[in-house]
Write a structure and sequence with these properties.
Layout (H helix, E strand, L loop, with lengths): L1 H8 L4 H8 L4 H8 L6 E6 L2 H17 L4 E6 L2 H7 L7 E4 L5 H10 L2 E7 L5 H9 L4 E6 L13 H7 L4 E4 L2 H9 L5 E3 L4 H8 L7 H7 L3 E8 L1 H13 L5 E7 L4 H10 L4 E3 L13 E3 L6 H5 L4 E4 L12 H4 L5 E3 L7 H9 L2 E3 L3 H13 L1 H16 L4 H9 L1 H4 L1
Parallel strand pairs: 1-2, 1-4, 2-3, 4-5, 5-6, 6-7, 8-9, 8-12, 9-11, 10-11, 12-13, 13-14
Helix pairs in contact: 4-19, 6-7, 12-17
């Protein structure tokens, strides 16, 4: 019934259309991608964030066990559409809708050595079939909170779903204790594989020639994934407090041309857009607006300070680990309560939360004028990342997958 409703909804929603269309030929495509003799490790991720958590384990398995095939599935179009050409997997597709028929066909067809679900994906029919077929199934980078249905008096059925997992690799001891309290004992506190992923980013080539030309060895604040509320505060500082020697790179979350134009027109300093940069002497501009996607991480590598957007929205602050791994002082808005890494960085004093211009402006001024303070704050961010790396190796060592193959 739910699948039929989605098919109707697809007529009116481009995102749901992708969700439905992407699942129509999955079984035919799987038959072309794998032979019955292929030994497969299946990774399932809800979306892009979970992919980044599963990625270090995928790549380590691929490195250590090249004879194994990697199948990567996504639930959401926002994950699949971005990573459908990822070279670390042998085949990438949407996960067929969680029905008993789909799950039986999916699991029975594939010669699965291991099924890996990332963070919080629990599909009852798939877990039941995996257990029936005696396929080892694990959760990696899991995180649990007391408010979740598993830990409520009415969560008996969902607790049975969890019991379909063989091992839980969780991020923290709180998650372990919660699972232990409902009778689940095969729990290993491994940490969060995102730390391994973001730390690896520092070792790659992050140079972008036009960003280097724009910065021209100047102090630069990089504001990533900003929303309107974030941008209003930043523009207030740029227009009223910033010196001519400070530079700013703003990468908005929303790429709609009208919103980019609105942002550009509110700034009273010289502004250049990524889409209009060709043929211009970029070092002559003070503000660079990144109206494209896919380069923010590399831009963070050249920042002096990072402002991470989303902290004034209901969904909350965006990824703080990517700028933290480059040893940057971080600034975020007030909505961060659901993000453990943001809370930890605030506690470590590598990050500051602001509510208004009265709190942001003096902080930015101090970071610009006090090199020692800025660098020591950034070191706290980097140290937080470094002391949390290692989840990938703990997981790989425990799985002993490659030793068996």
């Amino acid at each position: 019934m739910a699948w039929q409703i989605l098919k109707i909804a697809a007529l009116f929603s481009p995102k749901i259309k992708l969700f439905v269309k992407g699942r129509t030929t999955v079984f035919e495509d799987l038959k072309k991608a794998f032979s019955p003799s292929d030994k497969i490790v299946w990774f399932h991720c809800a979306s892009l964030g979970e992919f980044e958590q599963g990625r270090p384990i995928m790549e380590q398995i691929k490195k250590d066990c090249p004879q194994l095939k990697i199948l990567l599935t996504f639930f959401s179009p926002s994950g699949y559409e971005v990573r459908k050409n990822y070279e670390g997997a042998d085949f990438i597709c949407y996960l067929p809708f969680d029905t008993a028929t789909n799950a039986k066909q999916f699991v029975s067809f594939l010669n699965l050595e291991l099924a890996i679900f990332v963070k919080y994906e629990f599909w009852p029919n798939y877990l039941l079939q995996l257990k029936k077929q005696q396929v080892k199934t694990v959760l990696v980078s899991g995180i649990f909170r007391e408010k979740q249905v598993f830990f409520k008096w009415y969560g008996t059925w969902m607790r049975k779903v969890l019991q379909g997992m063989d091992t839980f690799f969780v991020q923290d001891t709180t998650s372990k204790l919660l699972l232990n309290n409902i009778g689940i004992d095969k729990v290993i506190v491994a940490g969060d594989t995102r730390f391994d992923r973001v730390f690896e980013i520092t070792k790659q080539d992050n140079y972008i020639d036009f960003i280097a030309d724009f910065i021209n060895d100047s102090y630069v604040l990089v504001a990533g994934s900003t929303w309107k509320e974030d941008e209003e505060l930043l523009v207030n500082y740029i227009n009223n407090k910033a010196t001519d020697k400070e530079k700013f790179i703003i990468a908005p979350h929303n790429m709609k041309p009208d919103d980019i134009k609105r942002l550009q027109e509110t700034i009273q300093k010289k502004v250049v857009l990524f889409s209009e940069k060709e043929g211009k002497d970029l070092k002559e501009y003070q503000v660079f607006i990144v109206d494209t996607i896919g380069i923010l991480t590399k831009i963070y590598s050249r920042a002096s300070v990072a402002y991470i957007g989303g902290g004034f929205t209901k969904s909350g602050v965006h990824n703080v680990l990517e700028p933290a791994t480059f040893g940057l002082p971080l600034i975020i808005g007030p909505n961060y309560a659901k993000f453990n890494e943001a809370i930890a960085l605030l506690r470590e004093k590598g990050c500051f939360s602001i509510r208004n211009s009265e709190e942001l402006n003096p902080l930015l001024t101090r970071f610009y004028t006090d090199d020692t303070y800025r660098k020591s704050t950034g070191e706290k961010s980097l140290n937080y990342v470094i002391k949390n790396i290692g989840a990938t190796q703990i997981t790989i060592n425990s799985l002993q997958l490659c030793e068996k193959n």
